[in-house]
Amino acid sequence: MAQLLQYNCYARYKEGAATHRHSKDRETPFPVFMGLTAYAKTRKRLLVEMLHEHGLCISYDRVLEVSAQLGDAAVRIYVKDGVVCPPILRRRLFTTCAMDNIDHNPSATTATTSFHGTSISIFQHPTPDNKGEEREPLKLAERKVKRVPELPDSFSNIRPAFFTKKNPPPPKADGPSVPDVTDLPRLQLVLEYEWLEKVRLTEEIDGAMNITWSAHHASMKRSPAYEVSIASLLPLLRDQAHSVSTVRHVMNKIKDTVAFLNPGQIPVITADQPIYAVAKQIQWHWPEHYGEDKFVIMFGGLHIEMAALRSIGNLLQGSGWTGALVEAGVASSGTAYSFLSASSITRTRQVHQITACCLYKLLKAAYTDYCTDSTEHPDRVLSFEDWCERYKQQSPQFQFWDLVLSIELVIFSLIRAFREANFTLYCQALSELIPYFFANNNVNYARWLPVHLRDMLTLHQIRPELALEFHNGKFVVHKSSREFSAMAIDQAHEQANALIKGDGGAVGVTEDPSALRRWMVAGPEVSHLVAQYEAASEAKDASKHIRHHEQTEQVQRVFFEKADRLYKAMNDMGNPFQEETGDLLTLDTKDIAHPSAAEMVGTHYERGRIKFQEFMKDLESKEKCTFYEPIKRNKMDLFRQELDFGDPKQKSRECDLQEFFRHENQSFPAALSDSGKLHTCQKSQLAAIFEDLVTLPDTEPKTDGIIIDGSALINSLPPRTSKTFDEYAALDVLPTIQVYSSKYKRTDIVFDVYRKASLKAETRSRRGLGARRRVTDNGKVPRNWRSFLRENDNKTELFNFLADKIVRMHTPNMVIVTKEEDTVSNQATSLDDVAPCNHEEADTRIFIHAKHAAAEGSTDLIVKASDTDVIVIAVSVLPALQELGLEKLWIAFGQGRNLRWIPIHELSLSVGPEKTRGILFFHAFTGCDVVSAFRGKGKKSAWQTWDVCTEASDVFMKLSKYPPTVEDGDLQVLEKFVITMYDRSSTAAGIDDARLDMFARKQKPYEAIPPTRAALIQHAKRAAYQAGCIWGQATVCQMETKSPSDWGWTKQGDLWQIFWTVLPPIAQRCQQLTKCGCKTECSGRCKCYRFGLPCTALCNCKCAD
Fold first, then answer.
1. pLDDT by residue (tens digit) across 996-1008?
2. In the predicted model, what is the mean pLDDT of residues 449-478?
3. Is the pTM here over 0.90, yes or no?
4. Which of 363, 598, 880, 944 is deepest in the core (most CB within 10 A)?
5. Which residues contact 562 (CB under 8 A, 6 or more apart)?
6. DSSP tag of 203
7. How much is the CA Rg of the chain, to the nearest whole Å?
């Protein structure tokens, strides 16, 4: 307060003056500190001026004057010392450096240029015994300074440089040899397993619990206390970082700076992969000036971690991992998908820590079950390690998720090496991680990381003094005194880059060289001056924080809750370590991967390890250089099959584009299929739309009866403590039925019927096959319940077994249960109207029972199901049920805490009569269990299209009734509907024309345009069959059936397969895609020659060259 009073006192105060000048003689430190702080943090003139008007800081012009004086003093020191070296840096300290590109594209309308420059950071590593020699402080000039002088020309002017030969080879000198990678000490994961076991055994969180990965390792306090590193940015260079001339220039400047600060030290430079590659090539091309004995080039640790997280993301693509994260509520679908590409490295790292905890817990749970099952022969029980090895050989599913856990633990070890400044662990983690880069096709990292590993392993032979410093923890940066918080050098540099790009950074001044120079030269000095004032005035708490920032109860609780939810979600989906089949399955949908994928999983790591060993041997070979030869890629798309569109480098040929876009480019349409299989969608989006149209009650409504989807019920009731099927019925199922019977006058349980010649056979086959097991009273209940229920014969036997148990129950009210085509009851009643029934799906058969209940006098019914199809059918059949006296119909949708009650009687009114009568075809046409969805178009976008394309309602209503007939006029309306769904602005008359327009003019990917008209016809037939012939007869006990062969399917053996289109693929019809197999030059027998077409890159001959 005293400083502000003195600063705001005037010797002569003139009344009415517009401004009042503050005398420099009365200027106190505090207003200078406030002005410089506001400027350094925000560089906002209005903020500084507002504070100045209130007498809290110096004026903006005075701030610029002070900063210019500081910049002028710094440049004078640069000239005096002969090297650009900020005064904050000390002498006689070990120094490391980093360089990277820094890009800024101004978004303001007045911006005329963009900035693509190079940033350089200097880091120094003091110790308790050596804190370095502080240099002479800045001395401000007495004269007035308005601008920061130009930097020395030797720093800012880059001389051109280029390689005289492409791809300089690694040196073949008789230097130190690299230890054989097979002789390296293997990475020990004991500490990681200790953490996993700690999390597994944790049942609740208290204030002292540390279960997050960082908090756990921080609590171990394995690292000694380190001094906080000194960091400074050098002025930015305006040249791009990836050129040979820029990298060589930076190496020269860093060499000068290091020699000035710590004479005799070899420069250590860290960079990301592209710059690292250029720097190593410079070393190999000019060994006399930049050789490996004169510079140590390090691979950026943060970038290695990012690449590793992306690598495991590629492996997890399509595995169902993201679906499990969404199901558990750990992340939204968009966020979960971003984890595959590691968009946010911090969040991706944390979600893999959560995943590792869950996988380990599932693995131990599977082993516990194995031990429990083996109690009769305790002498034959395998150890945990032997059990894992045995089941890895038997189950690809086990092997895949064990592989995922292994990669995650190796990545965590790499990160721990940085956090604990453990150089030995760093080398071990690298040697274990590199094979995964080879296996996962990360070819750039697979090529260059072995070079970095070689340099690190031979460092003690080439530069033992540097190796000693690295082993003392100086290969990382300590930005704080907190435990377990050291970071890789490039991460510290990235944080400095973030300051440049953020508020108070270089954004907005990159177009003005003078302003940029002021920020880069004077900015660090302003920040240093502010820090000195804070230290002198004790403005900040002088006590050091040593606890890791994750060591708080809230962070631990959130982590524990997410890990617990993910474990339950993955366990509900079926413990992957208890999979009994030989298939590789997606975690959430249980789709079967290609059989070759199951084989590839077993050899995935081994293939990468062999390639790594061979590459290291070739790196030391004195024969022909093979370093730059292409690294053969592995087949690793385990859960997806990419379409091969051939070589894009073709010569142009004349082509009838309209004819071209009448055909699909494969035998199946890309817009409707996944490599020949159904393309599915999230049907639950439609349920969400329905829920927004009505008011959902908070409590369960009171009704006369309940109809339960039996399959969904059994899925939600896995055995808890039951050992046999008789115990399962008595302990798990029958008590649940008893509860329902005590609440409702009538309880109906409707099971699915499984037939070999089912249209859903393909959908079910994608979920895999479980082990066949007989269902008897004394038969043992399988541990993997989900796997057991994937086998149709298992379910048929189980449902019949339970039906026999239920019908013998003594309940307060009547219970009716289906048994294949028949129906039985535990009390006397007429069942003529519900049996025999030829419905296959419980989704439709439910409404046979609803109709029967309404006819018997029920006025209020509730249907318990978890399939959106049931809601759709309920909306459609409600008018017929209301004619029989039913007043209210509810759907109990979802499970557990997600259970809600949807009032169909209110929903029908909200939807309106037209959509009520056309909802069946709409739902089938936009994607269901047996009809494809349109790629990239979910239920929400389709519903919005129906709102604007109202003429489709008549066709939808017509095709929702039995018997359906698809006519040309109907197809024209459906074409318009699909075109509108893909492009609201399209004026195309037909869907083939729209395909051409979207692909050619609007540059949409081929998968993002609609199917051909020929494919749409077959799609419409399939939708009409499902909507009219199946769902449209939901209240008919003996539905009339038509042959699917007339409705978009074809029979192969006992199974129905989708018939996609009557037109052949374009390659078989269009001559322009003809290719020849000529060995030499083309002659009269050549296909291309006969059609008068030039050869292309697709041809086997040499003509295209």
1. 888 877 778 887 8
2. 94
3. no
4. 363
5. 328, 330, 354
6. -
7. 36
